[in-house]
Amino acid sequence: MMICEAGFESFFSGTILPLVAFASVGTSVIIALAFMFGRATSNPKVTVWAKTEILQLVISVASIFILIMTINAFCVLNMAEIAGIFSQEIPDAPSCASGGSVSVYCAAETYLKDAAQYSHNAMSVVRYHLQGYTILSFLNAFRCDFNTGGIGWGCLFGYSGANQQPFGGYGATIAALNIFFNSTIIAFFTAMNFLFILLFVQKGFVFIFLPLGVFLRAMPYMRGFGSLLIAVAMSFLTVYPLMLGVLWIMSDILIDGNNNLTPIVSGPGLSQFYNEWIYPNEESKAMAQSFGSALSGPDYVENTYFPQGENAAGAIIFAANAFVAAVFLPTVALLTTIASIAYLSRLYGEAIDLSKITQLV
Amino acid sequence: MKLALLILLLMPLAFAWQGLAVAAMTTSVIILALIYMVGFGFGVNELQMMAKEEMFQIIAVAVLIVALTGTDGILNAISTSDAFIETPGDTGATMQSTAKDIAVRWRGEITGLFTDIRNLDIASSREGSKGSQCNIAGMGYSVSGCGGYSMLATPLSMAGGIVGFAIGELSAIERLILVSETYALAFLLPFGIVLRTLKFTRGAGGLLIALGISLHILLPAGIIFTDMLGQTFIADERAQEYLPQNYGTVDFDCNPGDTRPEGWAGNLIMPLSIATFDPDLFSGQLMTNNEINAINGYTTMRENIRKYLYSILVLATLGPVISLMMVAGGIKALTSIAGAEVDVSAISRFV
Predict the structure, then answer these.
(1) What is the pTM of this model?
(2) Residue A334 and residue A359: Cα distance in Å, rounded?
(3) What is the ipTM score, two decimals?
C-alpha cells in the first residue's frame, strides 16, 4: 500500500487525519487554557503567546491541507503528458502506471528502479570482463623443446621446455576495470538507497511527522523542531519525487531507456556480457577448457569468453554512464530536497542549519 | 496586484509550457490573494507581508518567462558563436556539438593510449611469465630468465588504472553534454520556471533553471576553454615532446633459458656462486641480454611518460574538472538568484 494506490486513502483518513485532528484539538486546548490563565492572572506575556500560537496552529493545519491537495495533484498528474507538453519523447509506460497515466510517484519509483538495473547491468559487464581477464591471465601453457609438427620431443624422455602464461598481461586492464567495478557497486547501492528512501516516504512513514509537527510547533522552545518535521514531510513528499520524476522524463538518454538499459558503444555490443553462467563452475568444464586449449591453442579459451571480442573501453563507458545516472543526478535531487527542507523550515519558524547533513550526502 | 494580474492576462499563451506556467502563476496568485485577505481580515501583518513578498516572486517568474522567450535567441547565439566552434562559419555547429566533438576526440586519444598500454602490458607480461625447465629422470633445473620483465607489470597496472579512469571521466562528460543538448533549454529551463511559481517547489524550480543554464552554457564552455588552452600549448615548439605521438618501440622478445650476460660466449647456464661472484655482473656492465631488454623497455616507457602527460592531465583531468567546477559554481550562483540556494558542495566533491 503506497501513495496513490487503493487502500492508502483509508490509511490516511483513518490514521493520519485523526492524529492531525487530535494534535490540533489538543494544541488548541493547551493554547486556550494558557490564554485563560493569562487573562486570569493578568499576565500579558502568556496571552500574547497564546494569540501568536493559535495563528501558527492555523498555518500548520492549512499547510497540511495544502500538502494533501498537492499529493492528490501529484497522483493524478501524468508525467507522460508533462513530457509531451515540453515536446519530449515519452518513455514507455511503467508497470505502476494506472490506465496509462504515470503519476509523479510512479515516475520517480520507475526511474530509480531502472537506474539500479542500469547500474547492475554495468556491473555485470565489468564483472564479466574482470573474470574473463582473470581466467585468461592464469592460463598456463608448457611448450616442449625440439618442436616438430606440434610434437615436442623434449618431453619424450623427460620434461624439457618453457612454461608461459600466454594471456598473462591483463594487469593494466584489470586495474582500470577494478576502479569501475567499485564505481558500479557504488552506483547500484546509491540507486537502491535512494529507492529505499522513496519507498519509505511512499509507504507513509513521513505522514507521522505531520501531527507531531502541528503539536510541537506550538509548544514553547519547540518551534524549530516542529517546523523541521513539517518541512521534512513536505519536501520528501513533493520535491524529492518531483525531481526524480523529471529524471524519468529524461530516462531515454540518461539510462538508455530506449535501448533496453544498455548504451550503444563502438565495438562488440555490451548486452552479450550479461551472461552470468558462461564461466566454468565445475571441474569438468575447466578441464574441457584446458584440454581444448592444449589441442587448439590458447585462443580457444579466449574465444569461449569473448567470441565477438572483448570491449573493455565500452565497459568503462557503461560504468561512467551508470555513475551519472544513479549517483550524480539523484544526488542533485536529494540536495534539492535538503535545500527545500531548510527553506521551508525557515519559512515556518526558525532557520535550520542542515549543512552537516548535506556533507553526509 | 492589479498590474501583476494584467501582466498575467497579457502573457502569450501560444506555447504549451508558457500556458502551463501562466496557469501555475494564476493558481499562486489566487492562493496569495486568499492569504492576503485572511491577513487583512484578522489584522495579521505577517500574512500580509508574506503575500506581498510572494507576489514579487510571481512577478519575478513572469519576468523570467519573458526573459527566457527573449534570451533563448541570445543563448543560441552564444551557442553558435564562431568563438566557440571549431570550424568558424559552420552554420550547423553549436557550442554543445563542438564540445561533444572535442570530448569524443579527447576520448579517442585516451582510448588509443589505453590500447598502447594494454598492448605493452600484454607483451611484457607474456614474456615475463616465461620460464625454462629441463628435467630428466627426476633431476633438472628451472630458470626464469625473463624475470626482469616482471618489474614492468606494476607501473603498467598503475598506468592502466589512470588511463581507464580518464576514459570514464570523459565518457561521463560526453553523457552530460548529450543531456544538456537534449534537455537543457527544451525541458529543464521552462519546467524549472513553472515549478518556481509555487512556493513548495521553488527550490526544485530554481535548481532546474540553474541546472539547465549551467549545463547548456558552462559545461561546454569549460570543455572548449580547456581545448583552446591545449591548442595554444601544443602550438609551442617546446611542447612537442609532450604530444601523444612517436612512441618508442619496446623490444620484449625474451628467451627464458638465456641467462648469459651480454657478450658472454661461455656455457648456457652462467655459474653463480659466492666463490665466483663478479660484482660487475650487477653493475650494469655484465647484465644478461634479457635484463638489458627489460631495462631498455622500462627506460623507453619512462621516456614516454611525458607523452602521456598532456592527454591525461590536460585533456582528461583538467578539462572535466574545470567544466564540472564551472557547472557547480553556476548552479550555486543561479539557485541563489532564483530564490532558493542549493548547497552543491556535495556535487563538487565528485570532481
Answers:
(1) 0.82
(2) 12
(3) 0.81
